[in-house]
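Reposting from the mailing list since nobody answered there.

I have sequence plus structure tokens for a pair of proteins and want to know whether others read the tokens the same way I do. The first protein:
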Amino acid sequence: MKANTQDRESIQAIQEIIRIAAYRYTYTPSLHPTHNMKTSLRLLHQAAKAAQSAPAAPAATATPNAEYFNQLPQILRNFFSKHTPASHTQYSTKPTLTTDPAANPFLPNKHPVTQAYHAPVYSLRRQAVLYKTAQQYGIADLLPSVNRSFYEDKYQTKKFMKGVLKPKGHKHELNKPERQAQVDQAMEQMESKIAKVKGSKYRARLQNKKEKSWY
């Protein structure tokens, strides 16, 4: 029913063009008819007759794939409307010419005339949004290759810095064992060093203190 309505509208539009062109051809004194104008009128008449005699086209039915496609988010539908899925096109993994059919929209590509590199069609932020959205719907493999990692892959392939795996530490932390050994040795020799400085009286006082001690 919808297709028949569109056919009628097309026929009416063609007939209206023919009517306006014929009117200008017949009643406009300043317009000098030429062979090209006569040919155009004849072609328009033929198109109108063909449209009238053509059988009505069957109404288009949505395929299951189209239904699945319409369920995708708008950002993915816009992308796949402009770029072929990776399952049907082998996208380049390196920068190439902008006119190359396999040019990766996620990479900078070179213009064949100016030899200047054009920025990627999609910025890094938009690439991340596209990939993460496609990952949620299980179609991330249909996107062109990205020189980035996301989710678990980001941490499984990440190279940690040496200081994170084996932290060097501050200077006082590195010297702590040696300094602690010096402190322990000084504490053991503390009384003898004090007695050596203060003399025999202090040594005798320490001796009496030990003798009077209950332990």
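The second protein, same order (residues first, tokens after):
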Amino acid sequence: MSERSEQAAALTAPSRSARVVAFRLANPCLTLADISQRFGVTGERVRQILAKAGVATKAWRPPPDRYECWQCHCSFVPSKMVRRTSARTGKEILYCGMPCQVVANTVTLTCHQCGASFPRQLTVVRRNRLDPRYKGHDFCKRSCQWRWYGLTYGVGSPGSTARAAWEAKYANRTHCRHGHLWIPANLVRYPSSPYYACRLCAADSNQRKRARKLLDTSGSVP
């Protein structure tokens, strides 16, 4: 290339970039291929010129009148939609409302203690999986978690010294502390405790609680 052609290219390059930017601003609906054919350059060169100038590289398209929900696949107007960005793909996901958004981000798990199925948010499940203390067990509520840990590691476990001491203490017991017979018919064991208690004492305790609640307004507590 001669010196004269280089000077001509240097003079025409900025003006061509300016014309490309001005043409894009005047025609926002045209694609990069349309602009490249108009100026005789490649679409990648047009994209570089527009990106350097801070102008939108994608062609503008008017929003549709109705969208499709990602969860229930129903059509809805844009004023009622919920926009969310997928953490895995980075793409925008549209929902027709919060119920669909909650259902789409909820998974069903099985409790490791009672075996019941329960829903849980996907973000909570991912956070628990990333926790180094997670051992692969999911629980539907705190009581099931405490019950499982107590039977596995705590006082309720078969090899626990506290359980052995409790069994040795009450092995030959005949009456409870209130004088009721310590027989299997009078014993009860609550789901959150591995030990037995007197059923009659528990009934008396519940009656006292009810009476205290009824007489609480008068100020006289038995």
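Reply #1 (J.P.):
I read it the same way you do. The longest strand covers residues 106-110.
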